[in-house]
Design a protein that fits this description.
145 residues; two-stranded parallel ribbon; 4% strand; elongated; mainly alpha; 2 domains; 43% helix
């Protein structure tokens, strides 16, 4: 989304698609100042027994901004992203990342999380390696990017 689209997140979705009231209540309960963290969104998905994508859809429909991406890619102030390129990417990590690239030569957010879990490293270390390697992470599991 572009800067001028900020606050008009629901435009990304078909108007006929309806939100689940239970998910909406959970989102509204966790949101502060029309913002919700990525981590809170994932917790809602877990508690409500739904997908991160469905929670992301609900967040968009409620015109709430997702902040503090767990990959460090967006939602931080003042620089917007927290992730910085890793100085040196070990061969095993690079191989794992390159092995999960999609047809667009991007790493999905879900694949990045899988790699972090497999290597027992923070998620942001995977995005940091991707920054160094010039690999974009997309799409977001919540639908933010």
């Amino acid at each position: 989304m572009t800067e001028q689209d900020r606050g008009h997140y629901s435009k990304k979705h078909p108007i006929e698609k309806k939100i689940d009231p239970a998910i909406a209540k959970a989102v509204e309960d966790k949101a502060k100042d029309k913002k919700i963290t990525c981590a809170a969104a994932f917790k809602i998905a877990d508690v409500c027994g739904t997908t991160p994508g469905e929670v992301g859809f609900t967040i968009d429909r409620l015109e709430i901004c997702i902040v503090r991406c767990q990959m460090g890619i967006f939602g931080y102030e003042p620089e917007k992203k927290a992730v910085k390129p890793m100085e040196i990417v070990i061969d095993e990590l690079e191989k794992a990342i390159r092995g999960k690239l999609n047809k667009d030569e991007r790493l999905t957010c879900a694949s990045a999380w899988e790699i972090a879990k497999a290597f027992n490293i923070p998620k942001m270390h995977v995005s940091s390696a991707c920054e160094k390697l010039g690999i974009k992470i997309k799409p977001c599991q919540l639908g933010a990017f």
